[in-house]
Design goal:
alpha/beta; four-stranded antiparallel beta sheet; 6 helices; binds adenosine-5'-diphosphate; binds magnesium ion
Length: 221
């Protein structure tokens, strides 16, 4: 496997949180490599460190010790400004809650992001990819939860990120609606080649993932 096929290289990553008297080791000595175009599922009990790992991969948080490289960029030594640029240029995020702007239509919510992107795809193309072309002039309140989440995915991918990080994107959805959302993430992964990491408890993911990473008590199992 050539070096260039590795998107993330993580070595001995540790994350410690202090809150008051309490000291929590959220990640302990996590080492892993993620290849370009992989579709990875992160599984583990609540509190096992899944969100912490995803947030560090996405440059939203920094490790206490250890190294994390995104291609040639060493994220573990990046400044706040470098992390902001990294997130903006390379990462799309999808969270449990959609965070759409209620007063803007689907098209306007997605278009908002293209102003700061270097080489965005067309807004309508992104909306088509998530299957919402007939709803593109609707407001979020006129859409179901699953449709709103698909708008959030269109917003995340319109800037053509190399990596798509999804933290419980199906957490507020029933199984069938959640599966539709995962189908869209799979389509993005397959058609655009976007490396995807998804935290979900939806069983439909089992047939989509290239690899499952299990976390238990802050460690890769
Ligand atoms: P998961 O996503 O697997 O449920 P998290 O990564 O959110 O787990 O949390 C791992 C551990 O770190 C938990 O014990 C959690 O309480 C703790 N933790 C996460 N974020 C913080 C924070 N900002 N401050 C203090 N403790 C945190
Ligand atoms: Mg979590």
């Amino acid at each position: 496997m050539p070096q260039t096929d590795i998107v993330f290289r993580v070595r001995d990553l540790t994350k410690r949180y202090h809150t008051g008297e309490i000291d929590i080791l959220a990640l302990r000595d996590v080492s892993l490599e993620i290849r370009r175009g992989e579709f990875i599922v992160l599984l583990g009990a609540s509190g096992s460190g899944k969100s912490t790992l995803l947030n560090i991969l996405g440059g939203l948080d920094v490790p206490t010790s250890g190294e994390i490289d995104f291609g040639e960029h060493r994220l573990s030594q990046a400044s706040e400004a470098e992390l902001t640029r990294y997130r903006r240029e390379h990462v799309g995020f999808v969270f449990q809650f959609y965070n759409l702007i209620p007063s803007l239509t689907v098209r306007e919510n997605v278009a908002l992001v293209t102003d700061i992107a270097e080489d965005p795809m067309g807004v309508d193309e992104a909306i088509d990819m998530v299957g919402l072309t007939p709803r593109r002039d609707h407001f979020p309140a006129q859409l179901s939860g699953g449709e709103q989440q698909r708008v959030a995915i269109a917003r995340a991918i319109v800037k053509r990120p190399e990596v798509l990080l999804c933290d419980e994107p199906t957490g507020a959805l029933d199984y069938t609606t959640g599966k539709l959302v995962l189908d869209v993430i799979e389509r993005v992964n397959r058609e655009l080649g976007t490396t995807a990491l998804v935290i979900t408890h939806n069983a439909a993911i089992a047939s989509m993932a290239d690899r499952v990473i299990y976390l238990g008590d802050g460690q890769v199992q």
